[in-house]
Amino acid sequence: MLKKWLASVGIGSAKVDTRLDNDHLTAGEPFSGKVVIEGGNTDQQVNQIRLFVMTEAVQEKDDRKVYKDVILASFSIDQSFTVKEGERKEISFEDTLPVHTPPTLGRTKVWVQTGLDVPNAIDPNDRDYITVEPHPFMRTALDCLTNELGFHLRKVEMEFSRRHEYIQEFEFYPGGEFRGDLDELEAMFFMGANQLEIVLQVDRRAKGLGGLFAEALDMDESFVRMTLTEAEINEGVAAVAEKFRQTIRQFR
User: pTM of the prediction?
Assistant: First the structure.
């Protein structure tokens, strides 16, 4: 009876460890692994194993930055079982990393968190950090901005958003042909089934008295939305770069 009571408050209870077959993944690709469960000092009923793909986003609160966890996706291994005292169980799984999983660039962190649904017990959990490469659509867009148009990636950060819950914001400073025209370019990417939607914030460089006046009133920043279809992306980096070029040139 004492062992059961201790397990119910999380002492001597089952432990969980998720082991991914590959911790270097690309958004949208399958991933697999196994969940290893080790029984504690008494038998325990496990109702469900839950896997969460997680990140964290920064939120401004009382003039300070607070980082909060965000669930990107969740998966359940639907089976109820009993893990006996001292027993070791291994359960394999396979799923797909969501296409909207943010790449782990800049300050962005992504991890897979595993929990056991154990009645009347503290939820045992395990956190495994992974490296996430951009979805191929996003990779093409980033290559266009940096390699073709000369922008330099300065900062990447996850931020809370009222509309989208979270946004990964990419901040570039201009080089190449836009060096003298822009102070900064910010980009946000939204993955669709067969397309990539991009929101650009173009910060024009102040030119002359009118430009200084506009900058003082924060009128030098413009937002523009563009969409890259799968067909356009398949045309190659040069074609996509030209679409970026024509879009940004509107604000020179």
Answer: 0.82
DSSP line for 149-164: T--EEEEEEEEEETTT
Among 172, 193, 169, 155, CA closest to 244? 172
CB 103 within 8 A of CB 132: yes
- Taking every pair of C-alpha atoms in the chain, what is the biggest distance, in angstroms? 81
pLDDT digits (tens, 9 = 90+) for 103-136: 999 989 999 988 777 654 445 567 889 999 999 9
3-state secondary structure of 239: helix
- Residues 72-101 pLDDT 10s: 999 888 678 888 888 898 989 999 999 999
Q: Which two tokens stand for residue 113?
A: 């968190």
Contacts of 68 (CB under 8 A, 6+ apart): 56, 57, 59, 160
Strand partners, 160: 166
Helix (H, G, I), strand (E, B) or coil at 85: coil
Query: Do residues 82 and 101 make contact, with C-beta atoms less than 8 angstroms apart?
Result: no
* Residue that has been written with the tokens 């900062």 in this structure: 155
